[in-house]
Design goal:
Blueprint: E1 2-12, E2 15-25, E3 28-34, E4 43-44, E5 48-54, E6 57-60
Parallel strand pairs: 1-4, 1-5
Antiparallel strand pairs: 1-2, 2-3, 5-6
Length: 62
């Protein structure tokens, strides 16, 4: 199942992105992008997500 979450900040490869939508499918991040307007079907969770690459996939650092 695919879920979209809105967060305040994403950090990936040492770069910080503000106001992002993160799309997750089966514990893998399949997309993230910045946004300026409210997005449909998106759950706002706030906070910061740090993304790392593991086995050629993007995942949340835990």
């Amino acid at each position: 199942m695919i879920h979209q979450y809105g967060v305040n900040r994403v950090i990936m490869d040492g770069v910080q992105y503000l106001q992002c939508i993160v799309t997750i499918k089966d514990d893998e991040i399949i997309d993230f992008r910045t946004f300026t307007e409210e997005q449909p079907f998106t759950e706002w969770v706030g906070g910061t997500i740090e993304i790392i690459r593991k086995n050629n996939k993007m995942v949340i650092k835990r």
